[in-house]
């Protein structure tokens, strides 16, 4: 069955369009290679896909596309690069002018190069500086506010820890089985000091000695509170 004639128009489906581009590109390169071999011709093809990918083909392989373009210029007498070079030079001049104006504006905002400005320009510069200063102040106040709020949160967290420790301390103090002593020192002390490290709060619990049920002796158990 013969295939129907394909209408030549843009393929709307992106996937189908890319598949068709890939197949026809390969077919075009194949035909160009056959033409170069059969007719001893030099062929160069540069293609830019819809996804901005460049595909290049040249035959014979040892000849680059640039060499073919240079040969084209010599044969036709047309300079392909002069117009492009002129456009690049014009773009460079524009960018230099923009850079010059930006540097002058920076100097003016720093208080330099003001002699060339008239009254209207000076007033405009003053208004711009005031707007910039207002933005800077708003940002500064926001940073200060965030820092204050962070400090307040730290203080609230510290107070909460302090209240928790005091509550635990009062609870253990009310228990008759516990007492706070110095580690190895005066048994009437509240804060104990260990041989190594910072001071620690210790809780002692007196338990009957299991070896002497008459109550003549007792064992001592130490619990660290802090």
UniProtKB/TrEMBL annotation:
Location in the cell: Nucleus
Keyword DNA-binding: yes
Residue ranges of domain MADS-box in the record: 1-61
GO molecular function: DNA-binding transcription factor activity; protein dimerization activity; RNA polymerase II transcription regulatory region sequence-specific DNA binding
Record's keyword annotation contains Transcription regulation: yes
One GO cellular component term noted in the UniProt record for this chain: nucleus
Domain K-box: 85-175
Official protein name in the record: MADS-box transcription factor
Organism of provenance: Cyclamen persicum
Lineage: Eukaryota, Viridiplantae, Streptophyta, Embryophyta, Tracheophyta
Recorded name of the encoding gene: CpAP3a
């Amino acid at each position: 069955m013969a295939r129907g004639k394909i209408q030549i128009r843009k393929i709307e489906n992106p996937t189908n369009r890319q598949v068709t581009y890939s197949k026809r590109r390969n077919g075009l390169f194949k035909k160009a290679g056959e033409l170069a071999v059969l007719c001893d011709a030099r062929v160069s093809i540069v293609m830019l896909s819809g996804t901005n990918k460049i595909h290049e083909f040249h035959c014979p392989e040892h000849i680059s596309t640039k060499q073919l373009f240079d040969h084209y210029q010599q044969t036709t007498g047309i300079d392909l690069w002069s117009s492009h070079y002129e456009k690049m030079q014009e773009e460079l001049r524009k960018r230099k002018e923009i850079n010059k104006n930006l540097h002058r504006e920076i100097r003016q905002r720093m208080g330099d190069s003001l002699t060339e400005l008239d009254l209207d320009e000076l007033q405009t510069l003053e208004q711009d500086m005031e707007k910039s200063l207002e933005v800077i102040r708003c940002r500064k106040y926001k940073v200060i506010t965030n820092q204050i709020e962070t400090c307040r949160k730290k203080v609230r967290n510290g107070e909460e820890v302090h209240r928790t420790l005091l509550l635990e301390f009062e609870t253990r103090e009310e228990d008759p089985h516990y007492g706070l002593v110095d580690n190895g020192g005066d048994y009437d002390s509240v804060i104990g000091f260990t041989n190594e490290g910072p001071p620690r709060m210790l809780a002692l619990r007196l338990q009957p000695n299991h070896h002497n049920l008459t109550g003549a002796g007792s064992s001592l158990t130490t619990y660290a509170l802090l």
